[in-house]
Structures are given as C-alpha cells and as structure tokens.
Design brief:
Order of helices and strands: HHHHHEHEHHEHEHHEH
Distance between the termini: 69 Å
Strand order of the largest sheet: 2-3-4-1-5
Number of helices: 12
CATH superfamily of the largest domain: P-loop containing nucleotide triphosphate hydrolases
CATH architecture of the largest domain: 3-Layer(aba) Sandwich
Largest sheet: 5 strands, parallel
Radius of gyration: 24 Å
Number of domains: 2
Strand content: 5-15%
CATH class of the largest domain: Alpha Beta
Amino acid sequence: MTVRDTDLEQGLRELRLTHMATIIKETLRVCQSESWSYKRLLRWLIDNELSFRKAHALAQRISRASIPEEWTLESYPFHLQPGVDRAQINQLAELDFVRQGTNITFIGKTGVGKTGLASSLLLKALLNGFTGIRQKVQDLVDDLHRSIADRRTKYVLTRLSNLDVLVADELGYLCLNEDKVNLFFQLMDNRYRARKATVITTNLGYDDWGRFLKNAPMTEALTSRLRQRCVTIEIVGPDLRAVKDLT
C-alpha cells in the first residue's frame, strides 16, 4: 500500500498535529537519506511537536500578559538609575518570591522605572513556566466592575486570584469609587489567602493609600495583608525618560 506525503499531512492536521504536518515531508526525506530507524523517526517527530507546542504556549502567555515595556532585566538601564539595587533585583529574578507567594511593591515618582522592573520580573516568571498578567489598577477594577452586569464576577475574580503573578500597575494615579475599592480589596484578599505573588507599582507611600482608597479600615486591612509577605522597594532617582534623552 502506497502512502502519499499529502495523505500523511492531511491526517496529521485532522489530528491537530499541525507542526508535525508542516515538517513531515522534509523529515521523511532526511529519514530515508540517513536510514533512520522507525523509533528514531517517531522520537524526532514527537520531540519537535512538543517543542513547538511549548514555544507556542509561551508566546500565548506573553501575549496575554500585556507587558508594555521593551526592557528585560538584561536590558534594564541600571547604570542610569542609581535608585535601584541591581543585586536585589537579580535576587528577585530567581523567582523565589513567586514560589513563596511574596508580594513586591515598587514605590516612586513617575518615570523612575517601576513598571519596567515589574514587567521584567513578570516576563522572567512567564519564561519559567508561571502564569501572570500585568494590568493598570484602573483597568483591573473596571473589568471587575463590568463583570457584575453579566454575572461573571466570580469567574473573573477566580481567574485573577489563581494567577501566579499579578502586576497591578499604577496604583494611586486615579481615584476609585467605593464599589471598585471593594472589588480590588476582594481580589487582593483572595490572592493573599491563595499565597499568590502580587507586584504593585505606585507613586504613593503606604501612609497615603487611605487618601486614594478612601476607606481607612479597608486600607489598613489591605496594607496589613500585603506587607505581611512583601518586599518594598522605594526608588529615589531620576526620570529615566529624561536621562535617556540626554545620553
């Protein structure tokens, strides 16, 4: 019985082995020219399909994470930001904070590199198989608030609560109403109980969060939970955008 390459490709695509279908023709040519055994051929096809799926899954995780910064930890301009301890950041990049459910809070003025560092740590976590996303706090609570209308709040909260890393970016830049503050607190409480790592960037010191959240008891409860397992990094340094323009 003669089996055509096109029949093999079609069968593989129907089995959703799309990458294997793409490489099968060239692989069979090499197999014949080098006299591979059946076992070696099968191992080669399986390994390539698995590698493709892992790479595709990683690309999907990075895409969904909404990482806005072009910097990685390797390209972050530490030499331009004396307010950042490079050794400390490299230690965090070992990702024990993710495994242990430790939070990180970056505090500093606009432009000092808070989002760049938070995004770089998130990218490092994704590259090592963890799940996570980055969202501005305002967008985060807006999404939660919209979920009330179609009764998806429980689903959205569960999805966000189970992420290995959540970067809550730009806390304090815009005021939230009471309903949104309650939803944000519920999310943070869920992540605290699940021992998941939350990375927050903010221009406000902890003592000023009450002004932003407008609820003293809830603010105290939030900061207490957050800081129980937390690394706080206050960046006092230049605006990196201005410094980079001068270099």
